[in-house]
Write a structure and sequence with these properties.
Elements: H1 2-15, E1 17-26, E2 32-36, E3 42-46, H2 54-67, E4 74-78, E5 84-90
Amino acid sequence: MEDFLQSLRADLVREHALTIVVRVHPGARKTHIKSVMADGTIKIDIAAAPEDGKANAALIEFLAEKFGVAKSKVEIVAGETGRRKVVRISV
């Protein structure tokens, strides 16, 4: 999993932006990357509840930390109310 993240981080540095597809599971025990699906979708468990935008905020915070960017550089561009989301990360 760490090799996959390293590859994505390298893409972010090289391209100055990265768009990823994530599938979230809110209300999990802890926030972590669960797996990567065959199509490249990243499955992420989110500890926050799916209410009042808490899970989206937790996802943004988690991805910002993983990619070493400010939270303002992580944006959910599609799927804000669903489990499948398109996220754009920039530097």
